[in-house]
Design brief:
Elements (H helix, E strand, L loop, with lengths): L2 E9 L4 H15 L1 E6 L3 E3 L10 E10 L3 H14 L15 E7 L4 E3 L2 E3 L8 H10 L12 H7 L6 E3 L5
Antiparallel strand pairs: 1-4, 1-5, 2-4, 3-4, 3-8, 6-7
């Protein structure tokens, strides 16, 4: 059975464009078929200080994996793209892949919470999600992406990167 999964990919180190493209390729190979992708958004860091901006994009993926296996493969892709998890908390990274939604399911397991527990607080998640699926309803908050974006109090800036990327 195909599951509709929304992933957000992001990078603020190295060749960010190449890393996002490579992450999407690896997701297609190891996770499932990318059906849609948002524009790329340049954003300031959320939760920590750095001058290096992030590039972020949301992917709509048809996936046959169970949530725990999906997480394991996302973590493996991050590692393949140079992610090091040596620090606790938020830090700069070559690649970050977060599971935003898995169908309309709510998953609470050790090390895995779906929907992502802080996505509704982050404009860098909500802007690309709203672009792809403005009417998609958050299964816990019971609000559309459009409504969550309108209500979001995040003051970090988010802007689309030029077309063609």
């Amino acid at each position: 059975m195909e599951n509709r999964v929304y992933l957000i990919i992001g990078s603020n180190q190295g060749d960010k464009r190449m890393l996002l493209a490579r992450a999407e390729e690896l997701i297609n190979l190891r996770v499932g078929v990318v059906q849609l992708r948002s524009s790329c958004y340049e954003t300031e860091a959320w939760g920590f200080e750095t001058e290096a901006t992030f590039y972020n994009r949301v992917l709509d993926v048809d996936c046959r994996l169970a949530p725990a296996e999906l997480l394991a493969r996302c973590l493996d892709i991050e590692m393949c793209l140079g992610r090091e998890r040596s620090v606790s908390g938020y830090a700069s990274r070559t690649m970050d892949i977060d599971i935003l939604f898995y169908n309309q399911e709510v998953v609470q397991e050790t090390g895995l919470q779906i929907p992502h527990p802080r996505m509704h607080l982050r404009k860098f998640c909500l802007e690309p999600m709203n672009e792809l699926a403005p009417c998609f309803s958050h299964p816990v908050l019971h609000k559309s992406m459009q409504q969550l974006l309108t209500e979001c109090e995040d003051r970090c800036w988010v802007r689309k990167v030029e077309a063609g990327f």
